[in-house]
Amino acid sequence: MKVAVLCEFSGRVRHAFEENGYDAVSFDLLDTEIPGKHIIGDITKLGPGYFKKFDLVVAHPPCTDLAVSGARWFKYKQKEQREALDFVRWIMNLPVKHMAIENPVSIISSHIRKPDQIIQPWQFGHGETKKTCLWLKNLPPLTPTDIVGGRNQRVHRLGPSKDRWKERSRTYPGIAKAMADQWGKYVLEAYK
């Protein structure tokens, strides 16, 4: 099974699929933090047809201009928001049968459609809160794998730094593993 993980510099989701034996490749404007198959560059330049060869796409469009956590800046970012929403629509229209788009609570919900599921890290083994929305195409919602105590808002409370956005955007390993385990199995079953 071939998996494309879009807009992922960390390599965590790609790596989780690789660990399960899938042929996974990540794409981002930045280099990857975890060695593996990774393509650096603007995915729109590859064109939608490039992605036909993939059985599953998991996408993490940049949330800088989408997340409601930045709502106080929205009036200054209207052009950037339009472009970010157009990019999400571009991803949603890729010619693949199975897809998940991941983003925090964002304007995707009010401008495109509501998410199919909202998950939290504490449902997947991490004692933290960070509402994460999933827009799904021919995939089931994720089933929590390890509900743990603790409701730390670590990501929300990160202090200012030049790499704050990177820390906030990394997928939790427990969530990445659930995606690989559950969606990988589901897609394989769909092709039997």
TrEMBL record:
Kindly state which keywords UniProt assigns to this record, in alphabetical order: Methyltransferase, Restriction system, Transferase
Q: Which InterPro entries match?
A: C5_MeTfrase, SAM-dependent_MTases_sf
| UniProt GO BP | DNA restriction-modification system; methylation
Pfam families, per database record: DNA_methylase (PF00145)
Coiled-coil regions listed: none
* Single annotated GO MF: methyltransferase activity
Highest taxon in the source lineage: Bacteria
| Positions of transmembrane segments | none
What protein name does the entry list? Uncharacterized protein
Q: Which species is this record about?
A: Lentilactobacillus parafarraginis F0439
